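This is your field. Have a critical look at the following sequence-structure pair:

***
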Amino acid sequence: MSAGPASGRTPGADGLGALDAFGFEAAAIVLGPEGARASAGDLEKVRPLRSVSKTLTGFACAIALERGAVALTDPVGPVGSTLRHLLCHASGLFYESDRVLQEPGKRRHYSNRGIDVAALHVARAVGRDFEDWVAGEVAEPLGMERLSWDGPPSVGAFAPLADLSLLALELLRPTLLGPEVFAQMTTPQLPELVGIMPGFGKQDPNPFGLGFEVRGTKCPHWTGTTSSPETFGHFGMLGTAVWVDPVADLAAVIGTDHEFCDSHRELLPRLSDDILARWSPPAR
């Protein structure tokens, strides 16, 4: 499968016309299972992934789960918390510290610290530095040659969209995980939990998988109004995003050079809807 840029772009005809409305640098790749269907902008620029890093971290943790090195029931984090709680933002940990806000499993409290503690637990279990684990078990098999880290597992990854698109392709047709663990990673864990979605306010419910956000019925949201509830992925506060819609059998990776702002809130959903309108298979 190729994730290289599509050629012969006619503005708007490929579902990417909304990129021109951002008012700052923006780029994207649309993918089907066979590879790139459309692209625009700078796909080779190395970008800070920020919270999109959580998709790589969640995937690497899921590989450890698949191998039997860890279990979702492992006690880790605050008293009563498990690896599952940490990876789905239900451990009760504060955003970026070990302060505990509530007991585990009561609310979806988004926590970078929880993801970092989960990664540390996996690193100890596999006997390798977590960055090395991601490189060897995720980046190298997928060909993500320019993935690098300068920060914690929750927010510290850097990569160009061309490399991020290789992860999106894997998420459309998984080869590194079996179906059971892949489903756990990309479908709601403790699905009834309410919580705050950063940038979009309170969501009831606020579903997350293992390192991946799940769209569900959230409104407002950064994916499209026509995105299926099964859509999963993540966005980052420095303007990068990845989503996979398993119903439409499509994925997209998006990058901008601007911190998350009102333009992203308005245009990311429009971009998703345009992509789905252009590239979704005809209704049967």
In short: The chain is about 30% helix and 15% strand. Residues 1-9 have pLDDT under 50 and may be disordered.
